[in-house]
Design goal:
- The protein is built from one helix and 25 strands.
- It is mainly β and about 325 residues long.
- Strand 4 and strand 5 form a beta hairpin.
Length: about 325
């Protein structure tokens, strides 16, 4: 009885802290009824989830700045031909941002949410190049020019001058592992940050050896998922590349993830080794308490924190 009471009290404390955090969570769902991907938003404790994309298309959120949600979509175009869109956290004011064709990739903003770095297709038969997009005008410019290489999932560091991304020299070479690299956008200097353990043979060519990088602002490190010893967990590296460590070791597998703007919360999709179901979890980074917040669909992925503003009202 005492254990049950303690668990109930801990749950209440966690829920109250989550509700007061100032964030909501947007995430992606495979809708098995419509046979497409939809974007949902929910309170931090998982209450009042709702579909805010509602379109027969692939809609996938990868970034948010304050209460503005950015997503890739193939609506109004050919299947898997992705363009950048934005909407508010109620799913209103939807508009296409740019004419640049995008890769299926995470994105990152800088300069108070006025500029975004993406992985795009800047020309015919040119793929996986980093490009800067002006979010006000939609204008863009290409910043990498090695067209044989693979550049994906870019993440700005706080100075806005450096970006971390997944890279390999030959995007067509299945035997080459994509690792995390850092690029200085002003000087062009590059640095490799991760090296997958040579002794680990448990990851297939298509598995994430070094997954999409996400920046942790409170403790100043870069996190990423990696399939090592047959399981996915989160790993970390400092921005200078000098320190590497395993970040999480839960009983589940952890994959796509995001950090709240204050670094106090970690959201991730957790799944079993067979990858039969994916659900969203939230962790209090200080206490390491974890709460599962979704369980409606079998495939719920890639959580993104959205800051609460007065004009955002989850319909209850």
């Amino acid at each position: 009885m005492r254990k049950l009471l303690s668990l109930a009290l801990a749950t209440i404390v966690f829920t109250v802290a989550a509700q007061k955090s100032g964030y909501k969570i947007a995430y992606n769902v495979y809708d098995s009824v419509q046979k497409d991907y939809e974007i949902y938003i929910t309170e931090m404790d998982g209450s009042h989830p709702r579909n805010i994309s509602n379109r027969k298309a692939v809609d996938w959120v990868y970034e948010a700045y304050a209460d503005k949600i950015f997503f890739i979509s193939d609506r109004d175009t050919c299947s898997r031909c992705f363009f950048l869109y934005q909407m508010d956290a109620n799913g209103h004011d939807v508009k296409q941002v740019s004419s640049l064709v995008l890769e299926d990739s995470w994105q990152s903003t800088r300069n108070n949410g006025t500029e975004m770095i993406v992985s795009g297709r800047p020309g015919k038969n040119i793929r996986s190049q980093l490009c800067l997009v002006d979010l006000t005008t939609g204008n863009w410019r290409q910043v990498t020019h090695d067209t044989a290489a693979y550049h994906n999932d870019p993440q700005f560091l706080p100075n806005g001058k450096e970006v971390v991304f997944r890279y390999k020299k030959n995007r067509r070479n299945r035997n080459e592992k994509a690792e995390l690299w850092k690029l200085n956008l002003e000087t062009g200097a590059t640095q490799q940050l991760t090296w997958y353990p040579a002794s680990d043979t448990t990851a297939e060519w298509h598995s994430y050896h070094a997954g999409p990088p996400r920046y942790q602002p409170k403790d100043n490190f870069i996190s990423y998922q990696s399939l090592q010893q047959s399981d996915y967990h989160l790993y970390a590296v400092t921005p200078d590349g000098k320190k590497h460590w395993k970040l999480t070791d839960t009983k589940m597998n952890e994959g796509f993830h995001s950090w709240s703007g204050d670094g106090k919360w970690l959201a991730f999709d957790g799944f079993d080794r067979a990858q039969s179901e994916y659900h969203i979890y939230v962790m209090n980074w200080d206490t390491k308490e974890i709460m599962q917040i979704t369980n409606k669909w079998k495939t719920e992925l890639s959580p993104v924190f959205v800051e609460v503003r007065d004009k955002i009202n989850i319909i209850k």
